[in-house]
Amino acid sequence: MAKDLTMNKKSLITVLLLVNFMAVADSMQGQPAPVFNLKDQNGQSHQLADYKGQWLVLYFYPKDGTSGCTVEANAFKDNYDKLKAMNTEVLGISLDDAESHRKFIAEHDLPFNLLVDSDKVMSRAYGVDGGAAFFSYAKRQTFIVNPEGVIVKHFEAVDPDTHVDEVLKALNTLQTENNDGSQDKAGHDGQVVIAEELEDALVYGDAWPHDETHEYNLNRVLASPERYENNNFVISGRITRVCQTMGCWMVLSDGDDFARVDFNQHSFFIPKDSQGQAQVFGHLKMIKDSAEKRAHLTAEGAGELAPERYEIIAYSVKVNK
């Protein structure tokens, strides 16, 4: 009798596993990516908003150290430089705890972070929670999230041996389509491109408006900001900070006054080590940021920013040599 009960229990477990592995969640492709707030192997929090403006690969996997998960993780590691060159970050997610993640990362020298989803909050949000009460895991599925936070590719059936090649191919296609068939001035891989080289300066973004003869110091502009909101002007100051993630924004200063300069939502980039006097062609805009967005900008090197502030939306930046 006991033997029969043991056999029945094993059979039940086998059936449950087969059902879970065979079940395929409804595709989330085309939907906004569910927000998340999880800690990684070192206790550092990660939120979806942290990755706004870049591509994000979220790959869920069952368990650290198992054969398929190791193959998949090493494939992402081997292609990580290619992914970073495509302005893409990678996050692995499983139900394992932080200690397990640290051991897995150390054993295979993984260059990306692994998120701890022990309560299955993120797995449920993305529809990949599997198993039963006595055997839970995250199903092996991957999501590509675009810079606007939309899931543009959902891999529901993943072969660890070939999956990363599929991800790279999909990213190449998606980024080409995102550029509407033409390269922007930054290139789809976030490269810095000089739009114009003058005798005493380098221009990034659009060609410099040489017919604009009036130049306004930043402190004058910020003293009467409403006058500079509706039209574009040449505004001058000194570069004191540049985004250390992509080079997609800078901080322009003039004495004690300063303003963050947004490069028209990643339309172009400047070298991360840019400094000295500069002029921008653009206009002021009132910005009201969440605490999460300000924390993201601070992490990129922006310093302390006020919740409500004027920023410059720039179409061209001229950096003095």
From TrEMBL:
Query: What keywords are assigned to this protein?
Result: Antioxidant, Disulfide bond, Oxidoreductase, Peroxidase, Redox-active center, Signal
Its UniProt entry gives the catalysed reaction(s) as: a hydroperoxide + [thioredoxin]-dithiol = an alcohol + [thioredoxin]-disulfide + H2O
Q: Which GO terms describe its molecular function?
A: thioredoxin peroxidase activity
Q: Which Gene3D superfamilies match?
A: Glutaredoxin
For this protein's source organism, the top of the classification is:
Bacteria, Pseudomonadati, Pseudomonadota, Gammaproteobacteria, Lysobacterales
State how it assembles: Monomer.
Q: Which InterPro entries match?
A: AhpC/TSA, DUF4920, Peroxiredoxin_BCP/PrxQ, Thioredoxin-like_sf, Thioredoxin_domain
Chain ranges of the Thioredoxin domain: 27-176
Q: Which source organism does the UniProt entry give?
A: Marinicella pacifica
Cite the EC number: 1.11.1.24
List, alphabetically, the GO terms of the cellular component aspect.
cytoplasm
The record's section on Pfam families has:
AhpC-TSA, DUF4920
**Functional description taken from the UniProt entry:** Thiol-specific peroxidase that catalyzes the reduction of hydrogen peroxide and organic hydroperoxides to water and alcohols, respectively. Plays a role in cell protection against oxidative stress by detoxifying peroxides and as sensor of hydrogen peroxide-mediated signaling events.
Q: PANTHER family, per this entry?
A: AHPC_TSA FAMILY PROTEIN, THIOREDOXIN-DEPENDENT PEROXIDE REDUCTASE
Which biological processes are named by the entry's GO terms? Answer: cell redox homeostasis; cellular response to oxidative stress
Family label: Belongs to the peroxiredoxin family. BCP/PrxQ subfamily.
**UniProt-recorded name of the protein:** thioredoxin-dependent peroxiredoxin
What is this enzyme's class at the first EC digit? oxidoreductase
Q: Which residues form a coiled coil?
A: none
Locate the transmembrane regions by residue number: none
The residue range of the signal peptide is 1-25
